[in-house]
Design brief:
260 residues; mainly alpha; Tetrahydropterin Synthase, Chain A; 8% strand; rod-shaped; mitochondrion
C-alpha cells in the first residue's frame, strides 16, 4: 500500500566451511546482510501495512530460508533472523493511531448499542410477563369472586327457605298468631326508634303511636293473604267417599218428593 518503512533486524550466522567463506565470497558478512535486506524488501512487498505487524514470525522464517539457500555455497549458515523494530513515518503513525481510536470507538458504540438493545428487550419481556401475570391474577380473582358470590347467594337462599319453613311451622302451632303479633310489634318499635335520624321531614299517620292498631292491621293483611290460599287448598282436595254416598242418597229422596 505504498508506505515507506524502516526495519531493524538481528542476524545470527555460523561459518560452516572456512575455505568457502574465505575464497567463495569476498566479504561474507556483507553479502549475507545484503541478501537479508533484499529478501526482506521482497517479502514486505507482498504484505499490507497492517499484516506486517501481525506476521513477523512468518517474515523471519522466510528470510532465514532464503539466506540459507543462497549462502550454502559460501560455507555460511543463517541460524536465526529477528525483526528488532519497525519505524513508520509520523503521518502514517498518526493515521494508524486515529484508525485504532476509531475502531475502538466503533467497538464501544456497538457494545453500548447492544447493551441498550438487550436492556430494552429485557424490560419489554419483563413488562410483558408482568401484564400476563397481572391479567391471570385478575381473571382468577374475578372467578373466585363470582364463585364466592354465587355460593353466598345459594347459602342465603337456603337459609331463607329454611327460615320460611320454620316460620310456617311455628305459625301453624297453637300460639303461632301470638308469636307473630309479638314479632311484628318488636319490629314496629325498632323501626319507630329509627325515625327522624336521616331526615327532619316526616309524613306519619295519625295512629303512629298505637302499636296494637298497627299490629292488628299487619295481622289482618296476613290473614287476608292466607285465606285465599287455604280456600284454594280445600277446593283442590278430592271429596271423601262418605260425602259421595250421602249426595247420592239425597237424589232419590228428592225424586220421591217430586213424584208424590
Amino acid at each position: 500500500d505504498n508506505v515507506t518503512l524502516q526495519i531493524d533486524g538481528v542476524l545470527y550466522l555460523r561459518v560452516m566451511d572456512p575455505y568457502k567463506a574465505s575464497y567463495g565470497v569476498e566479504d561474507p558478512e556483507y553479502a549475507v546482510t545484503q541478501l537479508a535486506q533484499t529478501t526482506m524488501r521482497s517479502e514486505l512487498g507482498k504484505l499490507s501495512l497492517d499484516r506486517v505487524f501481525r506476521e513477523r514470525e512468518s517474515l523471519n522464517a522466510s528470510i532465514v530460508d532464503a539466506i540459507n539457500q543462497a549462502s550454502d555455497c559460501w560455507g555460511i549458515r543463517c541460524l536465526r533472523y529477528e525483526i528488532k523494530d519497525i519505524h513508520v513515518p509520523p503521518r502514517v503513525k498518526e493515521s494508524m493511531q486515529m484508525q485504532v481510536e476509531a475502531e475502538r470507538r466503533k467497538r464501544a458504540t456497538v457494545l453500548e448499542s447492544e447493551g441498550t438493545r438487550e436492556s430494552a428487550i429485557n424490560v419489554a419481556e419483563g413488562q410483558k410477563q408482568a401484564q400476563i401475570l397481572a391479567s391471570e391474577a385478575q381473571k382468577a380473582e374475578q372467578i373466585n369472586k363470582a364463585a364466592g358470590e354465587a355460593n353466598a347467594m345459594l347459602v342465603k337462599a337456603r337459609a331463607k327457605a329454611e327460615a320460611i319453613q320454620l316460620l310456617a311451622a311455628a305459625l301453624a302451632q297453637q300460639h303461632g298468631s301470638a308469636a307473630a303479633s309479638l314479632s311484628v310489634a318488636e319490629q314496629y318499635v325498632s323501626a319507630f326508634s329509627q325515625l327522624a335520624k336521616d331526615s327532619n321531614t316526616l309524613l306519619l299517620p295519625a295512629s303512629t303511636g298505637d302499636v296494637s292498631n298497627m299490629v292488628a292491621q299487619a295481622l289482618g293483611i296476613y290473614s287476608t293473604l292466607t285465606k285465599p290460599q287455604a280456600a284454594r287448598g280445600r277446593a283442590e282436595q278430592p271429596p271423601a267417599p262418605g260425602d259421595v254416598q250421602a249426595a247420592g242418597a239425597e237424589v232419590p229422596k228428592a225424586e220421591q218428593e217430586d213424584s208424590s
